[in-house]
Specification:
By secondary structure, the protein is α+β, with helices and mostly antiparallel strands. It has one domain (about 5-125): Jelly Rolls (Sandwich), CATH 2.60.120.10. The protein has 4 helices and 8 strands; from the N terminus they run αββββββαββαα.
């Protein structure tokens, strides 16, 4: 996450369209949830335009903008429920990448797989830093 909570852009939208071929475009209105924590997940989403918040309860983990991804864990961790909710802050358009499309892209384009892993690694590091125990200097 960059200062101020915004995620760095991960994907060039025009390259994504060329890589994925036709994918479904999803529109989400401000205040509408793309998905909720605990939902079943069968797709990841890449933001074409707009802003989303990844959150649990009232805690905002990250703000995702154009080129960012959400929902990737559902495709990596088969059968696991969504670990957070995603709420649209602005009118948002997203490309939906289902499991079969995801696996096909990963098989033919290792750079795509590495980009997904980088996003997940960065998010894990952020959570580790955020929740790392603090120790008093009076030990």
């Amino acid at each position: 996450m960059l200062p101020g909570g915004a995620m760095e852009n991960c994907f060039n939208p025009s390259e994504l369209v060329a890589m994925c071929g036709p994918t479904e475009l999803i529109a989400v209105r401000p205040g509408e949830f793309l998905f909720r924590e605990g939902d079943e997940g069968a797709a990841l989403f890449i933001v074409k335009k707009g802003n989303l918040r990844i959150m649990s309860g009232s805690v905002v983990y990250e703000t995702v903008t154009t080129g960012g991804i959400v929902g990737e864990m559902a495709l990596i961790d088969d059968g696991a429920a969504r670990s957070a909710s995603v709420l649209a802050v602005t009118h948002t358009e997203l490309w939906e990448i289902d499991t079969d499309t995801f696996r096909s892209i990963v098989a033919t384009d290792p750079d795509f797989a590495l980009m997904i892993m980088r996003v997940m690694a960065r998010r894990l590091r952020i959570m580790n830093q955020r929740y790392r125990p603090t120790y008093s200097s009076n030990r």
